[in-house]
From TrEMBL, chain A:
This is Transglutaminase. Residues 157-221 form the Transglutaminase-like domain. It comes from the Bacteria. Pfam families: Bact_transglu_N, Transglut_core. It comes from Aminobacter aminovorans (Chelatobacter heintzii).
Automatic annotation (TrEMBL), chain B:
Residues 70-446 form the Circularly permuted ATP-grasp type domain. This is Circularly permuted ATP-grasp superfamily protein. It holds the Pfam family CP_ATPgrasp_2. It comes from Aminobacter ciceronei. InterPro entries: ATP-dep_Glu-Cys_Ligase-2 (IPR051680), CP_ATPgrasp_2 (IPR025841), UCP005522 (IPR016450).
């Protein structure tokens, strides 16, 4: 499936910004489930300082504020050819060792709720257990925006019982790790069938299954990724894979507007 | 247990390296020497060397006591030491390169994976980074102890941001001022060129793509840091800028410092800020000491950070116990310098042994430094040992234990004349396209009679360290 993606992020400030940085992980790579055909970043109010591959192989760019802008906008857009691999995104690659993904991060650190959840996953083969885990999470956490934020931990979201895809992915990764699977967080895009304008970037989790490699689980939607998914960055949690992370010097108030379209 | 005295061992009599010095000392008027001791203190006060001591409520700045009797090492002894140190430093850098890339040593099962995986000093952000010339530890301070004529052991590899080199330099400067005639009579290798060697060494590992002489700067956490004097001193001696995080920005793909003529690109940053505080965009978000985005510039290959972030994984006290395996794995040879037998309290059998033998052992925190939070069993009271035992039981993996070594002694000048005190040695090693070790180092001395704790934060002093040109 050929997907056309446009992802616009705009920050506006109530006073000019004198110094600030934004780190972008907005450049998708080709892999087993997708081929990047065209991709471009259009940046206003900031400029690219450096680009590099981070420890997980994500194409990462550091921007600095250019001039004294009131707004910074970043548009990432292009075309990706995707194919349905039944959620399998292939063998582990890169220097980041597989064991790194067995370890929890501050955002996935389990408490009793996550431990209980992981313990309630039934017996069976690896895939069966992971699918069981995904179904449990979908039941336990209702998709409700505005109830959690980027600092909400997996444990907090599970206790709360509401959240967004980021929370579902954290809970999945935290629980899968407890069950002994290396797990990671994937940020990207999902084309919802009924619309062109998407609510937000998407996120899902992957667990490493012997013989198969990394397998994706989208607990927010209760399914493994198919050809409607575009992967952009991976990490052990949201903080390591987040599309845009910034730091501002000063006291300006920031307003954020995001507009994403994904269409065939 | 009688300690080996480096000047006058119990049975053998005066040792050779001290003969010339002893000949001079015998002809000195004791009153004049006492006077020189006071002069030394004045020199130190004048140069402003102070040392902040953590955990004390009162005046946290004080002088580190200096003793005027030099610690003397023969040329032959030094050559053997340097061979051992070079081997160790090569192994440490090979280990770091491996740990942040293919991790062959873990695959081979020579170091347990868990030791790396659960270690806070392991920085995932360093995975895949290969700094210029493959150098991770540009400056290492190797702590060495001696227990007999020919028995040297490495106590610690300080591979993060070792301090103390300014004392080595000031100690020599002071001795040259107090006893110029001594240096006429006895040929001692100079250490004064350390700042120049440091500068050359840092310049030699500039980023690929920097043409001509690189711009070097020293990054300090600021004037409240215990080693601020040293940061300022080294920057001054090297003739480079001393900067704080707030002076730095990312400009044109590089880290740059604010100057009167605008921002100037920095190519090599000798940082004395710990990893966790180095980049608030990458590590602790609330750190005001670091430079946001410096890790991005680093990964892009546009700056050399000395020492590289993440080197703490090589000098962790739990890793230390594997150094013989690490050295053999990367150099293919047995270690030249010994490692002190170490019990890892994370292992049940070791913990049991340590708990049962607390009165004989030295127990240290795995991630600790500076002599804080350690127990010296033989010197501790029963109550102190009992309290420590509880801490140990609560967090066994936080501790390692070692036998209480009878560190060698060296005489210090006291009101009653010469008296032996325990010493250790920290030579400073510069790593770039080659390994340079300044002949000498910092000799730390436990001033209290019988004490084995040489740390300046725990009442230790220092001595000038002579390597003879013989």
């Amino acid at each position: 499936m050929r997907l056309k993606v446009s992802h616009r992020t705009e920050y506006s400030y109530d006073e000019p910004i004198r110094y600030g940085l934004q780190r972008l992980r907005l450049w998708p790579a080709s892999g087993p489930a997708q081929t990047m055909l065209t991709w471009a970043l259009h940046i206003e109010g900031a400029r690219e300082e450096v680009r590099f591959l981070d420890q997980f192989g994500n194409d990462t760019r550091l921007l600095s504020i250019d001039g004294d802008p009131h707004t910074i906008s970043v548009v990432a857009e292009g075309e990706i050819e995707t194919n349905d691999t039944a959620g399998v995104s292939g063998p582990h690659r890169g220097f980041a060792p597989l064991w790194l993904f067995e370890h929890q991060t501050p955002l996935t650190a389990p408490g009793t709720a996550i431990r209980d959840l992981a313990a309630s996953v039934g017996d069976g083969g690896d895939l069966q257990r992971l699918h069981g885990l995904m179904a449990l999470i979908q039941q336990r956490i209702a998709y409700v925006t505005g109830t959690t934020d980027s600092r909400t931990t997996a444990e907090e979201a599970l206790v709360k019982g509401t959240g967004v895809c980021q929370d579902h992915s954290h809970v999945f990764a935290a629980s899968a790790r407890l069950l002994g699977f290396p797990a990671r967080y994937v940020s990207g895009y999902l084309m919802m069938n009924d619309r062109v304008d998407q609510v937000a970037t998407h996120a899902w989790a992957e667990a490493y299954v012997s013989d198969l490699g990394w397998v994706g689980f989208d607990a927010a939607n209760g399914m493994s990724p198919d050809e409607r998914y575009v992967r952009v960055a991976v990490g052990r949690d949201y903080r390591e894979a987040m599309p845009i992370a910034g730091i501002l010097i000063g006291h300006a108030q920031e307003r954020l507007a995001v507009h994403i379209t994904v269409e065939q | 247990m009688v300690a080996f005295d480096e000047m006058l061992p119990a049975e053998a009599g005066l040792r050779r390296p001290y003969e010339a010095y002893d000949g001079w000392l015998k002809n000195q008027d004791p009153a004049r020497l006492t006077e020189k001791m006071r002069d030394a203190e004045r020199v130190f006060r004048k140069t402003g060397i102070t040392f902040a001591v953590y955990g004390e409520q009162e005046a946290s700045e004080r002088l580190i006591p200096f003793d005027i009797v030099p610690r003397i090492i023969s040329g032959n002894e030094w050559r053997r030491l340097t061979q051992g140190i070079e081997q160790r430093v090569q192994a440490l850098n090979a280990f770091l390169d491996d740990i942040y890339h293919r991790q062959e040593i873990l695959r081979a099962g020579r170091v347990p994976r868990e030791l790396i995986a659960t270690n806070e000093a392991f920085l995932p952000e360093m995975i895949g980074v290969r700094p210029p010339a493959g150098v991770y530890t540009h400056i290492i301070g190797v702590d060495i102890v001696r227990i007999a004529e020919n028995e040297f052991y490495v106590l610690e590899d300080n591979a993060r941001t070792p301090s103390g080199v300014s004392y080595m330099l000031e100690n020599r400067e002071t001795m040259l001022q107090l006893f110029p005639e001594l240096f006429q009579r006895i040929k001692v290798h100079p250490v004064e060129n350390y700042p120049q060697l440091l500068r050359q060494s840092l310049a030699a590992v500039k980023p690929n793509g920097v043409n001509g002489a690189p711009t070097i700067a020293v990054l300090t956490p600021g004037s409240f840091n215990s080693a601020y004097f040293e940061h300022a001193f080294l920057a001054d001696q090297m003739g480079v800028q001393l900067v704080e995080g707030q002076d730095l920005r990312v400009v044109d793909g590089h880290v740059a410092m604010r100057t009167t003529e605008g921002y100037k690109q920095i190519d090599v940053l000798y940082r004395r800020v710990d990893d966790a505080y180095l980049d608030p965009l990458t590590f602790k978000p609330d750190s005001a000491l670091g430079v946001p985005g410096i890790m991005d510039v680093y990964r892009a290959g546009n700056i050399t950070i000395a020492n590289a972030p993440g080197t703490g994984i090589a000098d962790d006290k739990a890793i230390y116990s594997y150094m013989p395996e690490i050295i053999e794995f990367y150099t293919g040879r047995k270690p030249i310098l010994g490692n002190i037998p170490t019990w890892r309290c994370s292992e049940a059998n070791s913990l049991k042994y340590v708990q049962e033998h607390l009165a004989e052992l030295v127990v240290k925190e795995v991630h600790g430094s500076g002599g804080y939070g350690m127990l010296v069993g033989p010197a501790a009271t029963r109550k102190e040992r009992e309290e420590f035992s509880k801490k140990l039981a609560a967090r066994p993996s936080n501790y390692i234990a070692q036998p209480t070594l009878s560190l060698s002694t060296c005489p210090i000048l006291t009101e009653k004349g010469l008296a032996p005190r325990h010493v250790d040695l920290r030579p400073f090693v510069l790593v770039s396209d080659r390994i340079r070790i300044v002949p000498g180092g910092l000799t730390r001395v436990a001033l209290k009679e019988g004490s084995l704790v040489v740390n300046s934060s725990q009442g230790g002093g220092t001595k000038d360290t002579w390597v003879l040109d013989d």
